[in-house]
Amino acid sequence: MSADPLTRTRIKFCGFTRSDDIDSAVAVGVDAVGFVMWPKSKRGVSVEQLAELSARVPAFVTRVGLFVDQSTELIEQCLPHLDLLQFHGDEMPEACQQYGVAWIKALRMRDEIDLAQQAERYHQAQALLLDAYRPGTPGGTGETFDWSRIPANLAKPVILAGGLTPDNIAEAVRQVMPYAVDVSGGIEAAYGCKDAAKMAAFVRHVALADTR
């Protein structure tokens, strides 16, 4: 599903709340770290916490902020601490584009979703993040979806999310061949508390499965 079939699968760990966990993620070679700015999430952080945590992230690791239908004012406060915006709500393309910063759009895999249509609608996004659908929950469900529903040759790079763990990530990479994968709960000891061993295992299994 990747726009470039020769590229390796990138890895994003999301939902960081502790500096030591960022250090552990960087040590095992993660490509991006995510911060949930939605206050209703058990992994949510404040702008002040974001500033402190993002300062821990070294060069060449992408800092991603996750937002769910939130105010322009809040997002603008976060911009100095982020490299990429991730929109998980019902944001219109124009709303995502207005900040002049690279962004990705998360789509929950409802039964009726037309991914080709959504790829056209959000054509300015850097990628589409595909997550499991649960009514009333914008993400972080810990559930997978039927990966065979992802069409071949989608016009945008695919970031696969939803219920990924060290135990199933190898099969996910082999089946979907996504541009990137995104995990939060599958590498945790508790909400917002990452498990260093699980992070290391996740990265290792992605590398072993990716034969491109």
Automatic annotation (TrEMBL):
Keyword Isomerase: yes
Domain of life of the native organism: Bacteria
Record GO terms (molecular function): phosphoribosylanthranilate isomerase activity
Ribonucleoprotein is among the record's keywords: no
InterPro entries (alphabetical): Aldolase_TIM, PRAI_dom, RibuloseP-bd_barrel, TrpF_fam
Record-annotated N-(5'phosphoribosyl) anthranilate isomerase (PRAI) domain positions: 12-204
EC number: 5.3.1.24
Key words, A-Z: Amino-acid biosynthesis, Aromatic amino acid biosynthesis, Isomerase, Tryptophan biosynthesis
Catalytic activity, reaction form: N-(5-phospho-beta-D-ribosyl)anthranilate = 1-(2-carboxyphenylamino)-1-deoxy-D-ribulose 5-phosphate
Associated pathway: Amino-acid biosynthesis; L-tryptophan biosynthesis; L-tryptophan from chorismate: step 3/5
Pfam family, one: PRAI
PANTHER family: N-(5'-PHOSPHORIBOSYL)ANTHRANILATE ISOMERASE
HAMAP family attached to this UniProt entry: PRAI
Family per record: Belongs to the TrpF family.
The name this protein goes by in its record: N-(5'-phosphoribosyl)anthranilate isomerase
